[in-house]
Amino acid sequence: MLSAAAKPSFNSDLATTDRLSNGIDVKLVLPEHSAIAASLSEEALKWLQNDPTVLSVEIDTHRHFMSLYNDDVGDPTVIQITPYSIYQSQANLLTLQPGMKVCVVDSGIAGSTGETGGINNDFDWSNITGSNDSGTGNWFTDGGPHGTHVAGTVAAADNGFGVIGMAPGVSLHIVKVFNAAGWGYSSDLAKAATECTNAGADIITMSLGGGAANSTEENAFIKFTDNGGLVLAAAGNSGNNTRSYPAGYKSVMMIGGNDADNNKYTASQYPSCTNGDTNDGYCVEVSAGAVSVFSTYPSGGATVAGLTVDSVGYGASGMENSGSVSGATYHMGTAVTTDPNANGKICIIDRGNASFHDKVNNCENSGGIGAVIVNNVAGLLSGTLGTTNVTSIPAVGAAFEDRTNLVGSSSALINIGPGDYGYMSGTSMATPGVAGVAALVWSNHQACTGTQIRNALKASAEDAGTAGKDVDFGYGIVKAKDASDYITANGCDGSGGGGNNPPTASFIQNCTDLTCTFNASASSDPDGSIISYSWNFGDGNSDFGVALSYTFTSGGTYSVILTVTDNDGATGTTSETVTVSDGGIATWSSD
């Protein structure tokens, strides 16, 4: 359909009658804008374009609902991308406080050259430790991209490039449990729980599972939660009501998945809440983003696609063929056959009627230099060209929401190459998302236990799917800010007594030779008062006081740690490195 704008002398009633008499199907008259909208043939279009009373004729473009939540658009090597799941779970509305550690039990992390790539620099590596089970190799050498993607969903740094995690920069402990074949035993997970405990982790996240319960494994997670921790695991991706483990244990919070429009991830498993007795722990408790989640990959291990159309960037998912092309665009329909009009152009192709491979192949055999396949349902198209790909031109998938602009475009640029970021789908992506939200909320309410954080996440989740609690979403989609507000209003135990926010530790230093002065008066408590200031000077000595002077016995670099405690027993910690020159005797005094 086209819209036409007329000169000021335009009379809408007369013009409409005139257009109809000339075979133009007028759909809408806009007298206040001196315009009409109409459907017309090529002959009628030429007639209208030659009408001296008509100023312009243009496409009356389609408008669609956007997804409720969307990834930022841009190149992650240049700007920082916030995934839709961050916005959906309100992680952008809450600030992480120090003191939390998440244990990621998976396939390792890309801290060096590994199976699928090199180090990913979108982490705060000073906050990451790890361990490996026997036969899995070094925890900092990835065993495939899965573990790195999971870790990034939790903790990718807020550093101006790449992607940001739910709890950016939170301390991680990585336990590598998958062997080269991509599996491990339940006993490996029991051992991992102990390693997470020894590392001081508050939260365990596991994007893995299997079909049978194991008492040793279950007891390990019961012990972790009894000691105040929180354990989360993925519901699974079989799309049925099978209960997977460890997610199916009462002590473990089972996480389901949803898409950017608050719909259920179709493959998310949905076991009942009854297993002899009825308990939330047997079924999905909350859900988070699980469809096309953007996160970190081992360096060079992902295929990154860029799509610019008429100088505007659009979301794109790369297929197998790498390369960069630019040129005029041509709408090739569903590309079920070759078309000589595509010669030398980038083909804009609608999904349907033929395989992705055949569409791209027909474009290439028509002389096309690149292909953009547009989804026919809401969301970004993520696909492959199959195992027998014979094409060579760059091809990307695009979102249905962008179809009108892509089909009506005049030029495009496609760029596909190796990168450090990519998409994955599954409850494996939702689980670290909830783990990051839990860390974010807990860091602001450190007097709570893991079980109390678990309950707050459920109490504050946004209902989705069938009204009320259901087997697909549990209590709903997790919301960080709402959970924090719930604890503030109702207390850690939900009794309505309000919650205690922890104090924030802060200090300044000034050193001359071996002597340094420290002042912690900038420390603060949002809902109470600080009653204790504890110092650790990093050389085996410690002291108490708001402000003090300390002389080191020898030159060197020391990590000075300040811990403050408020009137409700909550603590806050910070540290700074000091370097002093050689000489002197250790003395200190408190003010």
Notable characteristics:
591 residues; alpha/beta; Alpha-Beta Plaits; Rossmann fold; Glucose Oxidase, domain 1; 4 domains; eight-stranded mixed sheet; seven-stranded parallel sheet; globular; disordered C terminus
Approximate shape: globular
Distance between the termini: 80 Å
> Number of helical segments?
11
pLDDT below 50 for ≥5 consecutive residues: which ranges? 584-591
Report the β-strand fraction as a percent range. 25-35%
Main sheet strand line-up: 18-17-24-20-21-22-23-19
- CATH second-level architecture of the largest domain: 3-Layer(aba) Sandwich
By CATH reckoning, the class of the largest domain would read: Alpha Beta
Q: How many structural units, i.e. domains?
A: 4
Beta-strand segment tally? 33
Binned, the helix content reads 10-25%
- The radius of gyration is 29 Å
The CATH superfamily of the largest domain is Peptidase S8/S53 domain
Helices and strands: which structural class? alpha/beta
Structural notes for this entry:
It is a single chain. With 591 residues, the chain is α/β, with parallel strands linked by helices. The chain folds into four domains: 58 residues, Alpha-Beta Plaits (2-Layer Sandwich); 272 residues, Peptidase S8/S53 domain (Rossmann fold, 3-Layer(aba) Sandwich); 118 residues, Glucose Oxidase, domain 1, CATH 3.50.30.30; 83 residues, Immunoglobulin-like. The strands form eight sheets. The protein has an eight-stranded mixed β-sheet with strand order 18-17-24-20-21-22-23-19. α4 packs parallel to α9, α5 runs parallel beside α6 and α10 crosses α11. The C terminus is likely disordered.
